[in-house]
Amino acid sequence: MSQSNLFSTPSTASPLPPKPKRVGTLYADGGSRGNPGPAAGGAVVYDAERQELERAGTHCGHATNNVAEYHGLILGLKVALQHDITHLSVRLDSQLIVHQLNGIWRVKHPDMKKLYATARALSDQFKSIDYQHVRREKNRVADSIVNHVLDQ
User: How many Å apart are CA 48 and CA 83, to the nearest integer?
Assistant: First the structure.
């Protein structure tokens, strides 16, 4: 066997350039009528200049408010990834979800653990992400999406 067959040759292809930094903000919400009851999640993603990139909503079936909040968040994270956002600020009016994702509170309910794991896996795809609680009046667009989905 010749010596050249024992070693691989270095690749001449240059590595892929890193993705350019793309900053965005996600507002997400969820709600149910009856808690539990008919539920929906909603999200709106903005770019760094506060230009709206996309609105999205989803039915969650029969669920609690907290489950619907996670569905809105998960939908919004997916939308942000589709828009190649690399650095994301997430704003939610659910202190529970914010505290869980910031590691302050544990996730105890089995249904919530699955949703938490999905949100965490999506969060890990961003170079940076932060979760902050906002008052309900600062989250009106996402809330209106939830109500629109529930009204359909």
Answer: 12
What does the DSSP 8-state code read for residue 8? P
Domain containing 100 equals 20-151
Q: Which residue has the tokens 């919004």?
A: 76
What is the average per-residue pLDDT within 1-22?
59
User: Cα(122)–Cα(75) distance, rounded to whole angstroms?
Assistant: 10
Any idea what the CATH number is for the domain that residue 34 is in?
Answer: 3.30.420.10
Average pLDDT over residues 109-114: 92
Q: Which residue has the tokens 């989905």?
A: 149
Tally of domains in the chain:
1
The closest of 37, 33, 72 to 56, measured between CA atoms, is: 72
The answer as to whether 79 is a domain residue is yes
Predicted TM-score of the model (pTM): 0.87
Query: Is 10 contained in some domain?
Result: no
Residue 7 has pLDDT above 70, yes or no: no
